[in-house]
Amino acid sequence: MKTLKDAKVGETVKATKLTGEGPVKRRIMDMGITKGVEIYVRKVAPLGDPVEVTVRGYELSLRKADAEMIQVE
Amino acid sequence: MAVKIALAGNPNCGKTTLFNALTGSNQFVGNWPGVTVEKKEGRLKGHKDVTIMDLPGIYSLSPYTLEEVVARNYLVADRPDAIINIVDGTNIERNLYLSTQIMELGIPVIMAVNMMDIVAKNGDVIHIDKLSQKLGCEVVEISALKGTGITKAAEKAVALAHQKKKVTPAHAFASEVEDIIAKVEDKISSDIPQEQKRFFAIKLLEKDDKISELLSLMPDVSAEIRELEDHFDDDTESIITNERYVYISSIIGECLTKAKKGEKLSTSDKIDRFVTNRFFALPIFALVMFIVYYVSITTVGGFLTDWTNDTLFGEWIVPGARTLLENIHCAGWLTGLVVDGIISGVGAVLGFVPQMLVLFIFLAFLESCGYMSRIAFIMDRIFRKFGLSGKSFIPMLIGSGCGVPGVMASRTIENDRDRKMTIMTTTFVPCGAKLPIIALIAGAFFHNSGWVAWSAYFVGVAAIICSGIILKKTKMFAGDPAPFVMELPAYHWPTVGNVLRSMWERGWSFIKKAGTIILLSTIVLWFLMNFGWSNGTFGMLDFDGLEGAALEAAQAECVLAKVGSAIAWIFAPLGWTKAGNGWKMAVAAVSGLIAKENVVATFGQLFGFAEVAEDGSEIWKSLSLVMTPVAAYGFLVFNLLCAPCFAAMGAIKREMNNVKWFWFAIGYQCILAYIVSLCIYQIGTLITVGTFGVGTVVAFLLIIGFIYLLFRPYKESNTLNFDAKKTVSAK
């Protein structure tokens, strides 16, 4: 299953499902990453983690470990 | 009629700017009871009876962050008469998500769409009439920065508050979800007003564990939860979140017309492409940090602080006060207390203020222009390994100049756990005042070797890293989850007023501390050092004109020396014992609590020198007679790691805002200093001299224990360890 972690810089993906539960999942969803939303991967931080994405018209950064919870296509 | 209006909105939506514009200088800044979340209240300009409450910036009303719990407890339990929901017009889609939750509270809401000037500049159009109709509340366009529309928004909010109209949200979820919400609403006991039922029903469905504290009767809704979860094949919390965004997506097309976006990047995008670039990000970061450090510690701030300490206090106030008191024939002890005790002590602390103010200008600028979030983005990978935030870099860097502004700089860290950890560990970095101690030990024992200073920094950094790893596994730090899902706001120029206001608020809270707790501590310590038993009677000791053995003998009479002798056995395992001089080490270390530079001067006096050079070269010989080099290095490390000076402790107390946490931090620092120093002495002595005793065994056991704490497994917690009742009941 492809996750947001596997998406390359410059790629636009669509979230299909969020795995996991609790605070991290809720926070990710609160920030606008929900089923069906388009996510554009903008860049990776200079040290390789976290990543910066554009979602619902604004910039969001999240760790790769958390990005793994977001299944995309 | 007195009216209360709450400002609610996302972080970075211009809430603080609006609050400042509405209230002017009529503000009271404090903390929410029991937590370190800032609480700001103010009076609406031109309305004596209207109070404006600035709630913490939040993205949601979930139970997972302190800010969110504080905000929603206030909204649910205190029930303001109206809410101004500020929405960032340039980022409206995500901002409306919080709005859908605020609408459900049953409190009259007026929506203020902020940053309309930028929206217009981008060529976008927000149809406020549509927005108003779809969300069921009045909508006004404002620009908090330019001041347009804000009076209208405030007037409307006041009018709304007076009407006391019951409100119902206009938005709706999928019919399956709405049916279940209706069912749960019916189950809620009748003491909850009708207009609040939707909020509680949704929280019950979301299995919100903090809501039971606000509800007297908890209905059983497990059947409804199961029904929903089976139908949507997801957990209820996610279903509801999803429904909110689905609703927003369904109305956003009608409410917002975006200008045709070409290939053109916005200015903010262009800056960001450069600033967080793979190759440039770290050099730019280093440059920014260099400028902040250079200006606030080395040059402007350092100059102002030196001037305050040496000229203002050293040459004018202290001698002036002394002359004045002597001219009016004030008693000698009183002159001593006022001049050497109070004025010098508090002066030493207030001397940090100019440096701090310069630093706070930088911090306020970096925060409000948007670069601070980028720092967290760039540095996160390194710091999160030690339970710290990427933003912890700034306090530690500043701490290498002075721990006081370093600790205060931790305020920029939002996450409570990261912030506390940063406060506890920042003073491990050797600050400027510790350099004379390093020079003293290096000169007296190690032929001025460069490695002593280098190793001091190494010890400091190692203490931070090890403490971070050990502490994050302890019960004190378990509990608060720390997801790093962070908005990177668009860059913009902050206003001068906001930057200065933020600088002053932070600086003032430190000055207040200097006037109370720090003042008291310096008086007590002055008394201990200047009073004692001479010729069998208790009184003030006179050190004037004494030198050599006479001064040495007089110093041994003071209360502090007696206390030092009484507690010298505690430090015996650290090797501070040679030739019965152990108490001198203890006294010198205690005198470092006023200012770390004092350690060298105190040593000078204890060995019979009225004045010594900054590196104490006069006493190198005396010192080398009373300590072995290994014990001396241990002494150095002890002073580097133990509780910092009163000023820094005051800053720790201010930032922790909790007595228990303050003592935990100070206790941890002292115990760590003692243990490390003991291990250095015991194992160092084993290697150099070959002595093996009980102490050596203890040292090895301590090291084994330390390694265990460092490597033991642990699990990140998922619940917020925080008593929501406390913030509700303690109003």
Automatic annotation (TrEMBL), chain A:
GO molecular function: transition metal ion binding
Pfam families hit by this protein: FeoA
Keywords of this entry: Iron
InterPro entries linked to this entry: Fe-transptr_FeoA-like, FeoA, FeoA_core_dom, Transcriptional_repressor_C
Stretches assigned to the Ferrous iron transporter FeoA-like domain: 2-73
KW Iron (keyword) present: yes
Protein name: FeoA family protein
Source species of the chain: Roseburia faecis
UniProtKB/TrEMBL annotation, chain B:
SUPFAM superfamilies, A to Z: P-loop containing nucleoside triphosphate hydrolases
Sequence ranges assigned to domain FeoB-type G in this UniProt record: 2-163
Location within or outside the cell: Cell inner membrane; Cell membrane
Pfam families: FeoB_C (PF07664), FeoB_Cyto (PF17910), FeoB_N (PF02421), Gate (PF07670)
GO molecular function: ferrous iron transmembrane transporter activity; GTP binding; metal ion binding
CDD domains: FeoB
GO cellular component: plasma membrane
InterPro entries, per database record: Fe2_transport_prot-B, Fe2_transport_prot_B_C, FeoB_Cyto, FeoB_GTPase, G_FEOB_dom, Gate_dom, P-loop_NTPase, Small_GTP-bd
Record's bilayer topology term: Multi-pass membrane protein
Regions that span the bilayer: 279-304, 342-366, 421-445, 451-471, 510-533, 630-649, 661-683, 689-711
Protein origin, superkingdom: Bacteria
Binding site for Mg(2+): 20-21, 23-24
Record bears the keyword Ion transport: yes
Residues involved in GTP binding: 9-16, 34-38, 54-57, 114-117
Entry keyword annotation includes GTP-binding: yes
Keywords: Cell inner membrane, Cell membrane, GTP-binding, Ion transport, Iron, Iron transport, Magnesium, Membrane, Metal-binding, Nucleotide-binding, Transmembrane, Transmembrane helix, Transport
Family annotation (NCBIfam families): feoB, small_GTP
Similarity section: Belongs to the TRAFAC class TrmE-Era-EngA-EngB-Septin-like GTPase superfamily. FeoB GTPase (TC 9.A.8) family.
Role according to the record: Probable transporter of a GTP-driven Fe(2+) uptake system.
Protein name: Ferrous iron transport protein B
